[in-house]
Write a structure and sequence with these properties.
Distance between the termini: 34 Å
Order of helices and strands: EEHEHHEHEHEEEHHEHEEEEEH
CATH class of the largest domain: Alpha Beta
CATH architecture of the largest domain: 3-Layer(aba) Sandwich
Strand order of the largest sheet: 1-4-3-2-5-6
Structural class: alpha/beta
Number of helices: 9
CATH superfamily of the largest domain: HUPs
Helix content: 25-40%
Number of domains: 2
Length: 306
């Protein structure tokens, strides 16, 4: 899979294409991608995904939206679904004023576009004029077909990035993973904390996570921690550590890797959340805190072994 940072870097003769932010690459997105790759492979052409960064809502002043996936994470997920080319186009206010016809002409020119797949509520171009009907009209003129993909629903309703963001933000990472089709994750380099965990016999890896991403609600979680190709069970703490630093504002993300004892400062650590164990609590003593931590570790072991 090739990942480009601009449409200007790409020249293809023929392609099948889908367009969208695809934040989280959830199960609804995956339905579109499956149809895209199957159709492209069947016709012997490239399967292309055009996505955007920053999120259009953050550029256009529709509120600050925390992300489920950063561009590289999105590209990795799309690559795992056999997409041939991912283009992460920079979204700007200027781009939002381009007409649907001009934008689609640009895609035709760079990608040799001959088939476009879009979601049920998709629109692009100035004033979101490029809905399914308008894109089909343009396609007849430029020489590409349009395929509309229905929304994917389950017992909770239509699967959407908006709903998943809400679930992650309140700590319901189990349901979020169900809708995404994969665990929610955070990643970043391991940085030095205050060393308090090591002093009480529970050394943790502190992650310098990207601030653009949604951080699950404060609490204790069971999950997996990956360093390069190594995967380890982990008890994860998100919070301000109220027993010691109740005045802290920005939550820390710390992982205690079970059955692990190596120096990993500076290395990138990926955490995948599996289950929420409890709220973050303030303890009356260090001994009480340590007793609870070991209960959390055993609960983590039980959940992940199951």
């Amino acid at each position: 899979m090739k990942h480009f940072q601009s449409l200007e870097e790409v020249t293809l003769q023929n392609s099948w294409l889908t367009i969208g932010v695809f934040d989280g690459v959830h199960r609804g997105h995956q339905e579109i991608i499956k149809k895209l790759t199957a159709g492209a492979n069947g016709n012997g052409v490239s399967a292309v995904v055009l996505t955007f960064d920053p999120h259009p809502a953050n550029v256009l002043g529709h509120g600050e939206i925390g992300l489920l996936t950063l561009p590289d994470e999105r590209a990795e997920l799309l690559a795992s679904m056999n997409v041939d080319v991912v283009i992460t186009e920079r979204f700007t206010k200027e781009l939002s004023t381009v007409t649907a016809f001009d934008f689609m002409s640009r895609l035709k020119r760079h990608l040799g576009l001959n088939h476009l797949l879009i979601g049920y509520d998709f629109a692009l171009g100035k004033g979101r004029e490029g809905n399914a009907m308008r894109l089909t009209e343009i396609g007849r003129e430029l020489g590409y077909g349009v395929e509309l993909i229905s929304a994917l629903s389950d017992e909770s309703g239509v699967i959407s990035s908006t709903e998943i963001r809400k679930l992650v933000s309140v700590g319901n990472i189990t349901e979020a993973a169900h809708l995404m089709g994969h665990p929610y994750s955070l990643r970043g380099p391991v940085i030095r904390g205050d060393g308090r965990g090591k002093k009480i016999g529970v050394p943790t890896a502190n992650i310098d996570y990207p601030r653009e991403k949604i951080v699950p609600a404060k609490g204790i979680y069971a999950g997996w921690a990956s360093i390069a190709s190594e995967e380890h069970r982990a008890a994860i703490s998100i919070g301000v550590n109220p027993t010691f630093t109740p005045e802290k504002q920005i939550p820390s993300v710390e992982a205690y890797l079970l059955d692990f004892d190596k120096d990993i400062y500076g290395k990138e650590l990926k955490i995948e959340f599996v289950a929420r164990l409890r709220d973050e609590l303030k303890f009356d003593s260090v001994d009480a805190l340590v007793r609870q931590i070991w209960k959390d570790v055993e609960e983590t072991r039980r959940i992940l072994e199951a």
